Amino acid sequence: MVASLLAADYPGEIATPTPKALIHLVQRRYGVQVSYSTAWRGKKEAADDVRVTPEEGFRLMYWYMFMLEKMNPDTVSYVEVDEEHKFKYLFFALGASIEGFRVMRKVIILDGTHLKTAYGGVLLVATTQDPDHHHYPLAFGVVDGENNESWFWFLEKLKSLIPYGPEIVFVSDRNFSLLRAIAMLYPLSHHGHCIYHLSQNVKGKVIGVNKAICAKKFRQCARAYTEAEFLQLYCDFSSTYPSARLYLHEHTEIKHWARCYFPGEKYNLDTSNAVESINGVLENARNYSLLQMIDAIIEKMIKWFAKHRKASAEISTAQKLVPFVEKELHKTCKEAKLLVVNELNCYRLEYSVIGSDGLQYVVNLRSKTCSCKQFDIEKYPCVHAVAAAREAKKEADPEIQLHDLCSKYYWIDLWVLTYSRTIYLVPNSCQWIVPEETMKRLILPPDYDVKQGRRQEKRYASAGEDRDKGGKKKSKKSKKPTGTSEWLDNDGDQN
Ligand SMILES: [Zn+2]
Fold first, then answer.
1. Which of 6, 69, 395, 397 could anchor a disulfide with 46, C-beta 3.0 to 4.6 Å?
2. Coil, helix or strand for 354?
């Protein structure tokens, strides 16, 4: 009854009302009261009818991936089976996002989360952030768990799409298998620990003090722009929390978490929570079969691409920078007007600026640097650089424009390109046309640990993460980072 009601009211849709809402719906429509489990079963049945059952999902994997690639040119997918033709691993990346990433900041965030499907398994996600601070997923994988073999396999496939070099930066938790695979496959790239995860480890090492403040103070140290600022903050932190300092000393290398020592270009990105936000978006989809989950991922990406494509198209041609940076510079300009600027060298465009804190900063507009280091790291002008640019415009170089001082990744021209390609859903299986050799390739469901997959709903903790006595990871929903990562607090739909 529930399934047929859904088929009639929500034809072809996987995302249907919650079981609780369905109980009311059935009551109103038919005057019959159904239990929660009946409503849940009906919801699942309806979802299976839209796509296929979990077993069929594995059987049709090659067919589905063929259609995904056909609908979305340049999409790449890999399916790995064992010697008995049982499903082992899946990797896919849409052509649209592979192409978009070419004109984006080269910071890749990696994470894994457990699936709630009948066969369990783990969803691996490689994502990034567009210059306007929105989710931008790059690639997805489905594997048995986060281990040496699975992370190596996933990153090897990713490497075939994204050329490796020193410009590529990874941000993730400290999962040993993940770090090992990065070191082996991307030896020239830099890796940053997720500051949020590390702050959770650190606060677990202190007793008799306010743990939340300890985590916050650690994040402040990690996010210091200059070495001098860091040393001062870290000295205070170390004397207040000696056990936390000892933990950091014994388990981490400072360059992997302190922004001022990080050797690569990480911009504002320092937490892997972007992936967890994506997982939040896929919360319901993770209950369905694999193909339904992939449908839900693609559906969400279609929405994001359409939304941001439209937003970028609606911006006036006079505006050169993405809205986030435009807004930041707008705020900065007000403060910059009040600062005292002295020219140091008109050929080299060097200026001395007295900041609102009374300290002196040296700005070089040619090399796009400031001694506060914010300009160097974020790649758009800090308040001192804006003040210097105002002076330069008056005196030395009337052609100087603020957008020329920003990384090209923040230019609207490039932002538009990231969303230029359309993403298409895979049609219903009755509309598939698959070549004979693909039709012959069948896959059996895997031997994943079903019980484990069901019990462990969230991702495994990385090195040092706290768990409660029941073994379940502590909820962090209400404890997300603030400041530069505030965008992560929003539901994925908002982005
Ligand atoms: Zn500055």
1. 6
2. strand
**What is the extent of the structural domain holding 399?**
323-410
What pLDDT digit, counting tens, does each position of 204-239 carry?
A: 999 999 999 999 999 999 999 999 999 999 999 999
Same-domain pairing of 217 and 98: yes
Report d(CA 145, CA 453) in Å as an integer: 9
- Pair (270, 206) in one structural domain: yes
Q: How far does the centroid of ligand 1 lie from the alpha carbon of residue 355, in Å?
A: 8
Task: Convert the pLDDT of each residue in 294-336 to its tens digit.
Answer: 888 898 899 999 999 999 989 998 999 999 999 999 999 999 9
Same-domain pairing of 144 and 285: yes
Tokens matching residue 85:
């033709």
Q: How far is the CA of 188 from the centre of ligand 1 (A)?
A: 29
Q: 371 CA distance to ligand 1 centroid (A)?
A: 6
362 CA distance to ligand 1 middle (Å): 8
Q: Does 489 have pLDDT greater than 70?
A: no
Q: How many Cβ atoms sit within 10 Å of the Cβ of residue 228?
A: 12
Instruction: State whether 33 and 145 are in the same domain.
Output: no
- 264 CA distance to ligand 1 centroid (A)? 19
State which amino acid sits at residue 138: L
How many structural domains does the chain have?
Answer: 3
Is 339 in contact with 392 (CB distance < 8 Å)? Answer: no
| Residue 156 and residue 266 in one domain | yes
Report how far ligand 1's centroid is from the alpha carbon of 354 (Å): 10
Q: How many residues does the chain have?
A: 495
Helix axes 36-50, 2-9, angle to 10 degrees: 50
Backbone φ and ψ for 140, nearest 5 degrees, come out as: -130, 150
pTM of the predicted model as reported, rounded to 2 decimal places:
0.81
Asked if residue 420 belongs to a domain, the reply is no
222 and 169: one domain? yes
Which residues keep their CB under 5 angstroms from ion ligand 1? 361, 370, 372, 382, 384
From 16, 31, 50, the end of a domain falls on 50
Which token pair is 156?
A: 């090897």
d(CA 455, CA 398): 64
